[in-house]
Amino acid sequence: MAKLYNQLKHFVIKVLEYLIIICVGTAIASAFLQVIFRYVLNNSLTWSEELTRYLFIWVVFMAAPVALVRKMHMGVDIIFNRLPGKIKIFTEAIIELCVAIFAITLVNYGFKLTSIAMNQPSPAMRIPMGYVYLAIPLGSLFLTWFALDGCLQGLRNLLAPVTREEVYKS
C-alpha cells in the first residue's frame, strides 16, 4: 500500500512539473509574441499580457507543492540547522503542520473565491475569472496533502530510534 501511495504521489508531482513547464513556456511565447506584434508589426495583442499574468498565477500555485516536497522554499535556518536530531525532526513536523493549516484555509477561501468569480469575465480574453482563481484551491489542495504527508513522516521519524551521532550532531 505504501508503494502505491508513493507512486501516486510521484505521479502527481510529475504532472504538476509538466503543467508548470507548459505554463511557463506558454507565458514566454505569449510575451514574445506581444513584443513582436507591438514593435515589429505595430499592432499590439490585447490578450497576451493578461494570459501571461494568469499563467504566472498558475505557475506559483502549482510550484508551491512541488517546492515543499523538495524542501526548496526559502527559510532562515541558521538556528534550525544547529538543532539536535529529534528536536529538529519535531520542529520540521510542526512547520509542516502549520503549512497544512494555512493551505487548508487557502483551499476553503479559494473555492469560495473561485465560485464567485465564475460569473466575472476577464477584461481582454473574456474567460471566467474563476478559471484563473481555480489555481488557488487546486494548488493548496496539493500543498495540504504534501504538508500533512511531511508532518506524518516527521512524526514517524520521531518514533524511530536515534543514534548517538544524531543526538550530538550540530
Automatic annotation (TrEMBL):
GO cellular component: plasma membrane
Domain of life: Bacteria
UniProt xrefs under Pfam families: DctQ (PF04290)
Domain (Tripartite ATP-independent periplasmic transporters DctQ component): residue spans on this chain: 29-156
InterPro entries per UniProt: DctQ, TRAP_DctQ
UniProtKB keywords: Cell inner membrane, Cell membrane, Membrane, Transmembrane, Transmembrane helix, Transport
Biological process terms in GO annotation: C4-dicarboxylate transport
GO molecular function, one term: transmembrane transporter activity
Compartments (UniProt record): Cell inner membrane
Keyword presence, Chaperone: no
Keyword Nucleotide-binding: no
Main location: membrane
Regions crossing the membrane: 12-39, 51-69, 89-111, 131-148
Membrane topology designation: Multi-pass membrane protein
Membership in a protein family: Belongs to the TRAP transporter small permease family.
Protein's UniProt name: 2,3-diketo-L-gulonate TRAP transporter small permease protein YiaM
Annotated organism of origin: Neomoorella glycerini
Top-level taxonomy: Bacteria, Bacillati, Bacillota, Clostridia, Neomoorellales
Gene this chain is encoded by: yiaM_2
